[in-house]
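so my prof wants the structure for this chain in the tokens format not the other one, which i didnt know existed until like an hour ago. anyway here's the sequence
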Amino acid sequence: MKVFVLFFVVLISWKSHADFLLKGESEGMKFGVEKIVEGLGIPWGFAFLDSENMIVTIKKGEIIVLNLKSKSITNIKGVPKVLDDGQGGLLDIHLHPNYPNVPWVYITYVEEIESQGATVLARFQLKNNKIEKFEKILVTKSRTSTSRHFGSRITFDNRGLLYFSVGERGVRKNAQDLSVHAGSILRLTDDGKIPSDNPFIQDEKKLSEIWSYGHRNPQGLVFDSKRNILWEIEHGPRGGDEINRLESGKNYGWPVISFGKEYWGPVAVGESTHKKGMEQPVYQYTPSIAPCGLEVYSGKLFKKWEGDLFTGALKLTHINRVVLKDNKFVKEQRLLEKLHWRIRNIKEGPEGALYFSTDNGKILRIVPIKN
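here's what i got, hopefully its the right format
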């Protein structure tokens, strides 16, 4: 039965080439881009409740359920108040890895506290299109008066531990200060406890939730279950966007080392591009593409993309495919450049299509076209 459903979904995706906004080719595989819905504001994060329904966060402070078959939209009631200011708002959304048997839905958003914004991790259960059992898991120590660099993405590892990213909030020194959460990747249990093997749990001067630090604005985070690797992608300044392989307790350098330049002139940020005790990226983009969202593709529909990383590009308006070998960068490919849309998020759907959202309010998917 599952095979039949998958075949049926793929067959629908191969209907009429005239329905595709754009067609392309990669590694000898032809694909088309289908529009599912538009007019959503900025759909920042999304997750798949089942094979037909997607739950979506809208940056200004709304959560909707989108039926992928009928394209109908249902508004969810009881969404917490968010600070929609600059880069802040209602951010990522992720289901518990055992959903729906464990029916928790996780979100990150920006909360106003004494006229400052802080990234918050919360969870809730969804019942009759309403939020129930809402819990704030962690109000991060990341408050500043700026309206930039909040992060924030959520993922789970093979042990069911939760990771989420927090930007350095526009205050560079935060990324090297382990007494605040800003500029870090945080690691918790699914109910917000601190795992006993977190790297700084024995140091009273450092926050126990921190897994890695030295990050600028990490807006892509995904756990690669086959390779058992936590991948992260973050914005540099002018140049120096980074893909990092994250490991416990390590320092990824910002702002001491960077491949980027200052916004005010052709001057390198920090001391250099390398320093002992600070990690190098797997790959860096100069000039910046402004990456947002990150996915590891399974190969379900596009076999030659299996294991590749995909991220959206806000500034250079494309989907970026990164090929790895032995966990090292091999090459990149830039897809959908002709659309000229800021790509906000990208995820693989249950059937293997690649779904992505754009800052002009659209949700679309990439599907194969028969040769």
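also thought this was worth mentioning. The helical segments are 2-13.
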